[in-house]
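Much of what follows relies on a compact textual record of a protein's fold. A record is reproduced here so that you can trace the correspondence yourselves:

. . .
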Amino acid sequence: MSRRLADGPRDEMPARHDRPWVDAVVALGANLGDREATLDAAVKDLARLPLVAEVRVATPIESVAVKPEGPDEDAPAYLNSVAILTTRLAPSVLLEYLHRIEARHGRERRERWGDRTLDLDLVSYGDVQSTSPALTLPHPRAAEREFVLAPWLAIDPDADLPGVGRVDALLERVRTGDAS
C-alpha cells in the first residue's frame, strides 16, 4: 500500500532551470519518540519541498536497529519506509533539504548509526552513480537492507538500484542470505 502526495501536473511546478524531472528514492526511519507521527510529518515536509511534483510513500514496516556491530535487539525498534520523489532538485540540494528536515525533527548526529528521531537517506537519484565524499549514490548499504528494499519494492515493483541490480533480486538475496 502506498500514498501519493503532491500529485499534480508537473508543468505547474516552477521551472527555475531546465534540469529534467527525476525520481529520487529516500529511505525514512525513526526509532525514538512518536515514530509514526514523525514519519508522517517528514513525508509532508518532503511534499512541500520546492521542485517536487510528486511523493509516493510505502506503508511503514518495523525493523530491528542495526548498529556497526550488527542487529541490536535491545535498542528501540525502527519504523521504516521509503518515499519516491519526482523532483528537479539537484541531488546535493535534495540532500541538504533532507538534513534540514532531520534537524527540524530533533535529529542529533552524536554516534554512527545511533538511535534517532528521524533518519532520511538519499538512496538513489535517477541513474546517477557517484563516489564523491559529499554524496555517494546509490547509498552504499541500500542493497543490504531489507528495511529499504521491501518498502521500495512495494511502491515500485520494477525498481532498480543503479549499478547494482533489480530491487526484487536484491531483496531475495538479503532474505536468503546469499551474498553473491
